[in-house]
Amino acid sequence: MWQPRDISQICSETQSNLTQCSPAGFMYLALLVRLFGGVNYTVNEDTERSKENKENKFSSGKDKDETKESHEYDFIIVGAGSAGCVLANRLSEEEQWRILLIEAGSEEPDITMIPSLYKALKGSSLDWNYSTQPEEMSCRSMKGHTCDFTRGKTMGGSSAINTLLYMRGNRRDYDHWEEIGNYGWGYDELLPYFRKSENNKAVEAFDTYHHGTGGPITVERYSYYDINNFMILESFKELHIPEIDLTAEDNIGVNIGLSTSKDGRRVSENVAYIKPIRDVRKNLDIITNAFVTKLIIDHETKTTLGVTYEKNGKSYNVYAKKEVISSGGTVNSPKLLMVSGIGPREHLESLNISVVADLSVGHNLQDHVTTNGFIMSLSNKTATNVSSEQLLEEVQRYHDQEPKKYGPLATTNVAGTTAFIKTKYSRESTPDIQFIFEGINNVAEFYSDPQAYLTSDTFTASFDRLFCKPLLIKPCSRGIILLNNNDPVHGNPLIYQRFFTEKEDIDVLIEGFKFSVSLEETEAFKKFGAHFVLTEYTATIYHPVGTCKMGPSSDKDAVVDPRLRVYGVKRLRVVDASVMPFIPRININIPTVTIAEYISDLIKSEYKQ
Ligand SMILES: Cc1cc2nc3c(=O)[nH]c(=O)nc-3n(C[C@H](O)[C@H](O)[C@H](O)COP(=O)(O)OP(=O)(O)OC[C@H]3O[C@@H](n4cnc5c(N)ncnc54)[C@H](O)[C@@H]3O)c2cc1C
């Protein structure tokens, strides 16, 4: 059962007048839990139960050899997120291979399907609930200078809780990866894999060079947009930013974006890649609510043998004949490697972890940074405030709509409209600022306590203000992830974002602000009486990458080689967003999917030789 963030403490602490803390606010959450808290899809109970029985038989208390002999797979994939779901599907296409997919979170509950409710998923039972370490230049308006660092913890991972924007990145993002020694990772090599995963239902489908129509991920435009989307679109066009397909290889432009959804329901990678084969392919086992605590590595031969995981308070070992693949994401893959002895020697030794390979795991953290404080005030003409009663009706209406979902809940609304510009600091013909927008209700509540507001806000379809967020998409600053000193395995890792430690990042973002201000002067804005109110708060939109960097052997910071094999350790790969050496200038879900699609083919070809 899905559990929303517990906001009772926020409500009592602030003794607040936050709308979320009103009786109507709590009724709304209770309704969401009642209608969408469960898991609608069929999981074959018998199969699950028999799997549980098997697990109990091979608990870690048993003789190790017996466990190994009876419980062995070809590949074990840790994490059923964007990358893990793709890998599980593609590798299990080979009938002779036995695949195990292990996920720490639960099955994906129905609440994730509602595009407009992505905010309600943050801080809920589907989130690892990490937060950043206090830093001078980040999260300045938040108590203790720390921010939430949302990461998906469910089947589908972060693709089950994200904002559904379908983006790919600029050609230069990938050609650059190749130029620094990652042979085979250029745009031309990856384009077939972008097409392979896509089932485009929008006008872009006619461009068959860039787009695919037969893949697992349905891509559409929502059937409903309010007028603010068109106001934003027109204002950028007035400023000579062209309306283009933002998923093509040159992405300086503006548009109402494509989304990973089907008929108003989210298409996570779990929905796209796992549901259709669940309990159909007999060579794929999936274990949920199972937290992998360690890689089992033979320290003599530096060979990965399997993993240890915990489920229902018990610990189990499972073994892989061919490989273990870590797909835990940008925070949890480096964490798993480090607790298993793969990481910076000094850091591991300070925690008495015996070192298997001394690599720069956890370094090179990159993210897109923005501000939550740049607020656009809307006139009555475009504000879409709804009353509490209307809100409850909308939730019920969405629930009852069949077969297609439509209306404000079946869309991410203004979050779907986005633009990319190039400032004077961009050294190439590529964007360095992306603009994203988000609705905000009751701005006075936000100003009085931004933290309480942001952590308890759950609804996107009612607003009278907009956050306008110029996003730094080519940051120079680099952060780092370290293990928790008190409890490296179960404690939350220490996330240092180190935003704005390179001055150029501030310069570029200021250019983004300047451009935002010029929007106010457009006819599109004036016609609707929209104008800006300025403040200052940094925020991320959760695109961390780079902490298990891919690179050639000459790159001293590389953790994995261009086939994503961990340096110095046999039978171990990392496949997820953490391997990206440089962050693409774009939302990164589809780039992550493409990495997994591409590497699945490489793995198949390696073992067929
Ligand atoms: C709030 C939010 C909004 C976003 N919006 C967009 C957007 O609109 N468009 C876009 O393109 N991108 C967006 N992103 C980014 C994108 O969704 C992620 O970058 C992408 O999903 C990352 O994929 P991944 O496979 O690297 O990791 P994840 O999808 O995070 O998967 C990791 C999985 O591994 C599991 N796991 C981790 N550790 C363990 C362990 N030890 N044992 C077992 N299981 C484990 C996790 O529970 C999780 O399911 C957003 C992200 C967030 C959080």
Helix content: 25-40%
Highest CATH level, the class:
Alpha Beta
Question: What is the CATH topology?
Answer: FAD/NAD(P)-binding domain
Overall SS class: alpha/beta
Give the second-level CATH assignment, the architecture. 3-Layer(bba) Sandwich
- The number of distinct β-strands equals 27
Task: Report the β-strand fraction as a percent range.
Answer: 15-25%
Small molecules bound: flavin-adenine dinucleotide
Number of domains: 1
Sum up the overall morphology in one term.
globular
Low-confidence stretches: 41-70
Report how far apart the termini are: 46 Å
Largest sheet, described in full?
7 strands, mixed
- Mean pLDDT metric: 89
Give the radius of gyration: 23 Å
Within CATH, the superfamily carries the name FAD/NAD(P)-binding domain
Provide a count of the helices: 18
Biased composition (Basic and acidic residues): 46-65
Keywords: FAD, Flavoprotein
Region (Disordered): 45-65
Organism: Danaus chrysippus
Features:
seven-stranded mixed beta sheet; FAD; 609 residues; 18 helices; 19% strand; binds flavin-adenine dinucleotide; FAD/NAD(P)-binding domain; flavin adenine dinucleotide binding; alpha/beta; six-stranded antiparallel beta sheet; (African queen) hypothetical protein
Describe the 3D structure.
With 609 residues, the chain is of the alpha/beta class. The protein has one domain (23-53, 67-608): FAD/NAD(P)-binding domain (3-Layer(bba) Sandwich), CATH 3.50.50.60. The protein is built from 18 helices and 27 strands. Strands 1, 2, 12, 13, 14, 15 and 27 form a seven-stranded mixed β-sheet that branches. Strands 8-20-21-22-19-25 form a six-stranded antiparallel β-sheet. Strand 1 (72-78), helix 5 (82-91) and strand 2 (99-102) form a beta-alpha-beta unit. Helix 2 packs parallel to helix 13. The chain is globular, with a radius of gyration of 23 Å. The chain starts with 7 loop residues before the first helix and ends with a helix. Flavin-adenine dinucleotide is lined by residues 78-84, 102-105, 150-153, 157-159, 161-165, 167, 291-292, 327-330, 332, 336, 542-543, 576-577, 587-590, 592. FAD binds at residue 292.
